[in-house]
Amino acid sequence: MSRIFLNLKSMKNVSKYFHVAAFCLCIAALNTTMAQTETSISNGQQKSLIDLSSVDKFFEIADKISLNKEISKDEWNDLFSTLGYRIVGFNRARRDVHQEMLTVAFSDNQQIKRDSILNLSTEELQDDWTFLTRLTLINFLDMKENQKELRLFRETNDFDAIKKTSVDRL
After folding, report:
1. How confident is the model at residue 35 (pLDDT cuts 50, 70, 90)?
2. What is the mean pLDDT of the chain?
3. In angstroms, how far is CA 129 from the centroid of its own chain?
4. pTM above 0.90, yes or no
5. Contact status, residue 165 vs residue 39, Cβ threshold 8 Å
6. Is 157 exposed, middle or buried (0-12, 13-18, 19+ CB in 10 A)?
């Protein structure tokens, strides 16, 4: 997976939020390794092989935060128990950073905290956790700014076909 991210980082002239969409695709692609291998039929419709529940839960929680609603412990557990997050293997510390930065990014009343994290000095960013915190916040702010496009991307793309094309190229 790290090769995927390294290749994405080195690409030139990509849209501002391409890395966010690519992240969603990577999570989705990883999900297929644990998802069912055959297409199932449910209510006469074809079910996707790719589990996008992590993306859906993410936006569900982001929406609630944007509305200044409290997120329960169970809701956070639901997010981190989705297949995408389980595959990535969030330990408690990473989970805490992710949860806090999601709240900071999507909550209107967190501007001071956002600014303080975004304005950390180079010296402060030498700490790996501080760097991860800032990078996570930047990613979530990009997602917030471009969520309309990301949601449209999520809803209108055939990820099974994208996966098949990718696998065929291997």
Report:
1. very low
2. 78
3. 18
4. no
5. no
6. middle
Give Rg (Cα) of the chain: 17
Q: Look-up: residue for tokens 């690409």?
A: 11
Where do we find the tokens 């995927």? 4
pLDDT in tens, 70-89: 999 999 999 999 988 888 87
Candidates 162, 139, 23, 164; CA nearest to 84 is 23
Q: CA–CA separation, 111 vs 104, rounded Å?
A: 8
**Who's near 100: CB < 8 A, 6+ residues apart?**
133
Residue with tokens 């692609």: 29
Half-sphere exposure of 104 (CA within 13 A, CB side): 22
Label residue 163 by pLDDT band (50, 70, 90).
confident
Q: Which residue has the tokens 């890395």?
A: 19
* Residue for token pair 């790290």: 2
